[in-house]
Amino acid sequence: MDKQNTIKDPVSVSGIALHTGARAGLKILPAEENTGITFRRVDLPGKPEVKALAQNVVDVRRGTTIASGDASVVTVEHVMAALHAAQIDNAIVEMDGFEPPILDGSALPYCTMVKEAGKVEQNAPARYIVPKEPAYVEYKGTKTIILPCDRFIIDCVTSFGDSPLDTQYREQEITEQSFIEEIAPARTFVSYRDLAQLLAMGLVKGGSLDNAIIIHDGAMICKEELRFENELARHKILDIVGDMYLTGCRVKGHVIAIKPGHPTNVQLAGAILKQYI
Ligand SMILES: [Zn+2]
């Protein structure tokens, strides 16, 4: 039987936060078995904690935001994806603000951190969640299905209507290794249209071509080469791996996601959990 894991040594990283543009620090610490993934705001009095669970999600508009009491944390999905794929069941994620560093816009730096931290097997059995029945969620023209399966497979189609290049597809079985090689390096992206709106709202102050791909007028604009020809679909798979970890368990199942986003990802996590109530 698989056992739970935590990390061996604390690891930390710092960088620019996407929305505020401020410097942000994040530290991952080992935790006792059955803790799950808990975020801790060390900049607030009493260092309040938020458990990374679907019931604590309060906003899904531009990333996944979780909150509990006075503590909230935005854009948890990339660090959550790295922990899920590495099968780290228990960890404390300490943050010195409400936003983690965006780094290069992918989950690869978080995977590298987790790898560097090392893994320790604990005594309690690992918790898996497998849908008992197919589940289906829908939100504004986006649809996601999960089917029972003894592996974790994600099929994803993207289409934003900004460019023929943004209609992309990828199927990926998620394992620790395949996630690092095929999914984690895929970067965040934004359409030029949305970008203008976000800037007008005073957001994405830390955004740059160092940490995002911009889709504009039939082109993908980024500083380095695209890392994959279907990098957008792969990034959406990355976000699904992160958001599905809000079940509090390692997920097994076959996800078929059509133009997914955080609203459907989080709803899907909730839909599987409901099958167990
Ligand atoms: Zn993302």
Descriptive report:
This protein is α+β, with helices and mostly antiparallel strands and 277 residues long. The chain has two domains: 3-125, 2-Layer Sandwich (Ribosomal Protein S5, domain 2), CATH 3.30.230; 128-274, lpxc deacetylase, domain 1. The chain has helices at 77-85, 108-117, 176-183, 192-200, 231-244, 262-274, and strands spanning 3-7, 11-16, 23-30, 37-41, 49-51, 57-59, 65-68, 71-73, 91-95, 119-125, 128-129, 135-139, 142-147, 152-158, 168-173, 189-191, 213-216, 219-221, 250-251, 253-258. The strands form six sheets. A five-stranded mixed sheet has the order 2-3-9-4-5, covered by helices on one side. It has a five-stranded mixed sheet with strand order 12-13-20-14-15, with helices on one face. Strands 6-7-8 form a three-stranded antiparallel sheet, with no helix packed on it. The longest helix has 14 residues, at 231-244. The radius of gyration is 18 Å and the shape is globular. The mean pLDDT is 95. It binds zinc ion. Zinc ion binds at residues 77-78, 188, 235, 238-239. Zinc ion is lined by residues 77-78, 188, 235, 238-239.
